[in-house]
Specification:
It holds the Pfam family EF-hand_5. The chain has 154 residues and is mostly helical. 44% of the residues lie in helices and 5% in strands. The protein contains six helices and four strands; from the N terminus they run ααβαβαβαβα. It has a two-stranded antiparallel sheet. It has a two-stranded antiparallel sheet with strand order 2-3. The protein starts with a helix and ends in a 19-residue tail after the last helix.
């Protein structure tokens, strides 16, 4: 009898935990209360925290050098190796003009975060649900602003 119970317990299918909601990891981390929904307030709090982390001298501006150093530190932290990799991040401030060559103010950072949230909030309910987060998965981005290619010749 005991052997039968042990065998039955060993052969039961265990359902793995549900994967985290789709979407960029940064947006998932913005979900402060872990309910699978990112509210506008959570997204803005994340943007404020990101700006504070990048503004290493606390002067209210993020220079291209501060941005690169912060992105490198975050990459190393995610890898857990403490060693940075080259390359430019596309996260907060990644679109600061041609190659991120301008300073970013807190107000600009907040506006960028609000614009991104509004673009992703397709049903305009002030919340990013699992479907909206999944649709926001990172991939190749078309160039914007100063980085846009010239229009095709006619």
């Amino acid at each position: 009898m005991i052997i039968s119970l042990l065998l039955a317990a060993m052969t039961q299918t265990v359902t793995p935990p549900a994967p985290p909601p789709g979407g960029p990891a940064g947006l998932r981390r913005a979900d402060a209360n872990g309910d699978g929904i990112v509210t506008r307030a959570e997204a803005m709090a994340q943007a404020n925290g990101m700006f504070a982390r990048m503004d290493s001298n606390h002067d209210g501006k993020v220079t291209p050098e501060e941005r690169r150093a912060a992105m490198e530190a975050m990459r190393a932290e995610r890898r857990g190796d403490g060693i940075g990799r080259g390359g430019r991040g596309r996260g907060m401030g990644g679109g600061m003009g041609s190659g991120g060559d301008r300073e970013l103010t807190l107000e600009q950072s907040r506006q960028m975060a609000a614009n991104r949230f509004d673009r992703l909030d397709t049903n305009k309910d002030g919340r990013l649900d699992a479907a909206e987060l999944a649709a926001a998965r990172p991939g190749p981005r078309p160039p914007r602003g100063d980085d846009a290619p010239p229009p095709p010749a006619q």
